[in-house]
Structures are given as structure tokens and as C-alpha cells.
Design brief:
Elements: E1 8-12, H1 17-30, E2 33-40, H2 48-56, E3 64-68, H3 70-83, H4 100-114, E4 118-120, H5 129-140, E5 145-147, H6 158-167, E6 183-186, E7 191-194, E8 224-231, E9 234-238, E10 241-242, H7 245-258, E11 263-269, E12 275-281, H8 283-299, H9 302-320, H10 327-339, E13 345-352, E14 355-362, H11 370-373, H12 386-409
Parallel strand pairs: 1-2, 1-4, 2-3, 4-5
Antiparallel strand pairs: 6-7, 7-12, 8-9, 8-13, 9-10, 11-12, 13-14
Helix pairs in contact: 3-7, 4-5, 7-8, 9-10
Organism: Rubellimicrobium roseum
EC number: 6.3.4.5
Binding site for L-citrulline: 92, 97, 128, 132, 183, 192, 268, 280
């Protein structure tokens, strides 16, 4: 039995050629009403053209949603993730991954607000984003139908896409008539480049791939120092000036970008099973990670810090795979947030030719005790004789194993 066609669909719409083709395809394939949703996540593009393009394609003004989500993105998604120091496969700061649950959330919310029975996205059947969008929608509104045109239509080549666009009077920018050199996704946290000139991992990315950062070799010859203030694990100020979450990240992007900080050339394991090569630029995020690690060094207990580090790979994998709204991610978040209760203070960092490193950190919540670690007279703060019994007890099991092994050989 064929499922009934949707009556109203909320489309995640960029205003670009591909999602414009999807918009028209939804109208012609299903005869349905289309609602467009365009999110400003700090990608640095003017979004009003998306409104004009949607209107040109017959979408009524009340069905066009363009929203500035930058503050919500950083406050409710990026900052919670950075409390965990999350890195996927030890390197990737999850810039694309963390944006998808917010888009899925708004798709589901707008569907509820407008009475839509379906949502649609432009992710291909080879990538991770289809999983992230659809798992998010399933968690928030399982009754919604999800339409993924790239898994359904017969527009399987760039030529067929252009022919469809021309047949349906969809404007085509001149540079779209050829193959793009690579695909770009951007938001306030990072810029991601994949495909075409980047598909051979044996070749260095061309210089023109990097868009948000200067070449570290061309960065200023004079280092720059920046101080970041934290409260309960979140950055709240730069050089003593209190700023909103999105403003902090934007300013750190500017600072890091001019020093060539945050470049990553990575071959990663996609959730769908294949390996892919990406060129990522995360200047502000790279600074933020280093700073957060720096303040945790003096405010986080060893046991808490080591436990937190041990769960980080699992937490990062959940985000990468699209499980932001899963019970297990929320459970881990509660543990992580508990660890941040005293992660308050200031970190000074030095930026120089692609590198950022902590050079000083201080906090009223510090656990660092100079009188315990000093090489000078400690006024009885630490009795070094205590170490003898500590070592003896920890060596006991090793001695028993050694005796057992010697006996077995004999």
C-alpha cells in the first residue's frame, strides 16, 4: 500500500540551486504546499535572497521562515558541547554535526506551528546529515514524515539537475553550470569543505580551499595574547569585556583567523560506513577548547577530570552520529554539567602562526596549591614520608604477580 502524499511540507531551505530544485520537485511530485525554513547560524551569507527566491518559486510570504539562531546555536548547542571538550576521533570539533539538531528542532517546531505533516531536507544518501536531521525529527515529533529527495528522485547527475531547473524556470547562477571545485558548509563554529579537489587524501588541499583563516606561514610575526573568562564552564568574556555567546565565538573567529589558528585536514569515518576527507576551519572553537582545558586544569578535581575525559569520545560520537536528543546524550550532559560547577576563572592564551596555547590561568575556585608542590620549604603542608606507605600498598599486587610468575617458571 502506497503511503499518502504529504499535504504540507517544511523544507530546510538555503536558497541555493539544490534546495530550490527540491522545493519545485516537492510541488510537482506531491502537489503539496511548501513552507521554507532558512536558519542563520552565522554562515556569513545574506539570507534575504533566500526569501526572494522562495517568493519567485511561488511560496507565500507567511510560509517563508528566516530566523537568526546564532545566539541559540552557541548558547544551547556549542557551549554545552565544549563543556565536554568534545572531539570526534580525537581531532574534529564537530562544527557541522552540532548545527544539525538545532535545524531539526526548528523544522519540527515550524511543522507543528503551521500544521505540516512532513519535513524535507537536501542531504544526500551518502552523508551523515541525513541521519542527523531524521534522528532529530524522530526524537521530537515521530508522527512527521521525512522526505529526502536525494534518496527518491531520478535527478542523479548535475546535468539532470540543471535540465530540471531550466524546465521549471529556476534561476541558475553562471558558476553553477560547471562542476563546483568542492562543497562548503559553514556556520559560526566552523567552515567545512569536502569533495572534488579534496577527494584524493594523498594530495594537499589547494590554498584556495581555506576561507576563514590566513596561511599560518603568512600570519603576523608578532604573537597576540587574549584572555577568556569562564563561569561554570562557559566563556563569558574576552579581555575583560562581557559578551553574548555568539559574539564571543564570532570575535574569537576573527582573532584566530588572522593568526591561522584552527585548520584541520581530516580523513574521518562517517556514520554511514565510508571514509571521507574534509578540510575544516574552526579558529574560534580551537581557541575556546584550549582555554576551557586551561581553566579546567586548576578547577577540576583529578577524579572528575579523568572520568570526564573517559566519556568524551562516546559523547562526541553521539553528536557526530546524530543522537543529540537521545537519552544517553542527555545523561552524559548532566554528568558533564555537574563537573563544571567550579570551572570559573580566567585563561590567558598566546596565538602565533597557527598555534594557540595557554600561558596563564587563575581562579577563585582553584585547586592548585603552591605550598604543596613547591621545591622550597613547605611549612609542613606535605609529609614526604607518607609516600613510602603509599608506594608500598600500590606495589603489593605487582609483587604478588611477580612471585606467582617466578613460581610458575620454576
Amino acid at each position: 500500500m502506497t503511503a499518502p502524499a504529504p499535504k504540507k511540507v517544511v523544507l530546510a531551505y538555503s536558497g541555493g540551486l539544490d534546495t530550490s530544485i527540491i522545493l519545485k520537485w516537492l510541488q510537482t511530485e506531491y502537489g503539496c504546499e511548501v513552507v521554507t525554513f532558512t536558519a542563520d547560524l552565522g554562515q556569513g551569507e545574506e539570507l534575504e535572497p533566500a526569501r526572494k527566491k522562495a517568493e519567485l518559486l511561488g511560496i507565500r510570504s507567511e510560509n517563508i521562515h528566516i530566523e537568526d539562531l546564532r545566539e541559540e546555536f552557541v548558547r544551547d548547542f556549542v557551549f554545552p558541547m565544549f563543556r565536554a571538550n568534545a572531539l570526534y576521533e580525537g581531532l574534529y570539533l564537530l562544527g557541522t554535526s552540532i548545527a544539525r539538531p538545532l535545524i531539526a528542532k526548528r523544522l519540527a517546531e515550524i511543522a507543528a506551528e503551521t500544521g505540516a505533516d512532513a519535513v524535507a531536507h537536501g542531504a544526500t544518501g551518502k552523508g551523515n546529515d541525513q541521519v542527523r536531521f531524521e534522528l532529530g525529527v524522530a526524537a521530537l515529533n515521530p508522527a512527521l514524515k521525512v522526505i529526502a529527495p536525494w534518496r527518491l528522485w531520478d535527478l542523479t547527475s548535475r546535468t539532470k539537475l540543471l535540465e530540471f531547473a531550466e524546465a521549471n524556470q529556476i534561476p541558475i547562477a553562471k558558476d553553477k553550470r560547471g562542476e563546483a571545485p568542492f562543497s562548503v558548509d559553514a556556520n559560526l563554529l566552523h567552515t567545512s569543505s569536502e569533495g572534488k579537489v579534496l577527494e584524493n587524501p594523498a594530495e594537499e588541499p589547494p590554498a584556495y580551499v581555506w576561507q576563514r583563516t590566513v596561511d599560518p606561514e603568512e600570519a603576523p610575526d608578532t604573537p597576540e595574547f587574549v584572555e577568556i573568562g569562564f563561569e561554570r564552564g562557559d566563556a563569558v568574556s574576552i579581555n575583560g569585556e562581557r559578551l553574548s555567546p555568539a559574539t564571543i565565538l564570532a570575535r574569537l573567529n576573527d582573532i584566530g583567523g588572522r593568526h591561522g589558528v584552527g585548520r584541520l585536514d581530516l580523513v574521518e569515518n562517517r556514520f554511514v560506513g565510508m571514509k571521507s576527507r574534509g578540510a575544516y576551519e574552526t579558529p574560534g572553537g580551537t581557541i575556546l577548547l584550549e582555554a576551557h582545558r586551561g581553566i579546567e586544569q586548576i578547577t577540576l578535581d583529578a577524579g572528575a577530570g579523568h572520568l570526564k575525559d573517559s566519556i568524551m569520545p562516546r559523547y562526541a560520537e553521539l553528536i557526530y552520529n546524530g543522537f543529540w536528543f537521545s537519552p544517553e546524550r542527555e545523561m552524559l550532559q548532566a554528568l558533564i554539567d555537574k563537573s563544571q560547577e567550579h570551572v570559573t576563572g580566567t585563561v590567558r592564551l598566546k596565538l602565533y602562526k597557527g598555534s594557540v596555547r595557554t600561558v596563564a590561568r587563575w581562579s577563585d575556585h582553584s585547586l592548585y596549591s603552591e605550598k604543596h608542590v613547591t621545591f622550597e620549604e613547605d611549612a609542613g603542608a606535605y609529609d614526604q614520608k607518607d609516600a613510602e606507605g603509599f608506594i608500598r600498598l600500590n606495589a603489593l599486587r605487582l609483587r604478588l604477580v611477580a612471585v606467582r610468575n617466578a613460581r610458575a617458571k620454576g
